[in-house]
């Protein structure tokens, strides 16, 4: 059995917590308590539905540059830990359920599937958090490889703001305005808390680089 060190456990828990907070904050706050309870009651009576054909995510580890070796021993130790976690999660079922509440999941797929779907969503959050930590750690020495990882993440609908921010900085450094502008169109939900954070960070990069 594989055991994770305490620092990695803590960072994963923090990432998952942030993922769930952002997910819940995407929901409107004007829904009345009574209507919410009624909707929950109805959702809890929905029978199990087939979830075998959902858009499960399979990270293409064979094509992503996650076999980097760094000269810095401390950084190398970090990316080795991230790589182990990435390898471990690659065998797990993953779904990007950003912006979908538990109530909506029960309504669409049945209450009996909620635990599974929640686990698949958490696996997605942990996988993409580790990918971003890996990309951040190698960015200084291998910016192109880091960008490849983050571009994959953006195309899969991540809402991790640091992914967009670091990728935006990479595009600025390489004078790639078209790719930078495309980042705005990749944001999963521009009106969510995470979406607004991403927009603010990208706009700040533009303000800091007026000649870009």
Question: What do these coordinates show?
Answer:
This protein has 2 domains: 37-140, no CATH class; 159-212, no CATH class. It is 63% helix and 0% strand. It contains 9 helices and no strands. The mean pLDDT is 89.
Order of helices and strands: HHHHHHHHH
The number of domains is: 2
Number of helices: 9
Query: Could you name the ranges where pLDDT drops below 50 across 5 or more consecutive residues?
Result: none
Major beta-sheet overview: none
Cα shape: globular
Radius of gyration: 19 Å
Layout of SSEs?
Blueprint: H1 6-25, H2 33-43, H3 73-89, H4 102-109, H5 114-138, H6 143-155, H7 161-173, H8 177-186, H9 193-208
Q: Briefly, what is this?
A:
The protein has 9 helices and no strands. With 212 residues, it is mainly α.
Main attributes?
63% helix, 212 residues, mainly alpha, single chain, 2 domains
